[in-house]
Amino acid sequence: xxxLGITEIIIILLAIGILLFGSKKITELxxxxxxxxxxxxxxxxxxxxEIKKMNSDDENNDAKKEDANTPNNL
Length: 74
What we know:
It is a single chain. By secondary structure, this protein is mainly alpha-helical. It has a domain of 46 residues. The chain has 2 helices and no strands. The longest helix has 47 residues.
């Protein structure tokens, strides 16, 4: 974009943010974004664990059904 890299764009956006909001507000916004990111990652991790748990429960139930359907001719 206009020969600018991502680093230059971030620096320009930070400079504009400081001019608009002030340095104190920028630090508060950054802290809030950090907290949001942490909560988002935690929620994602919890959801992944729940999906894995549900999949393993389904696999266990399928295995039990297969065992119940096989005849015991011993």
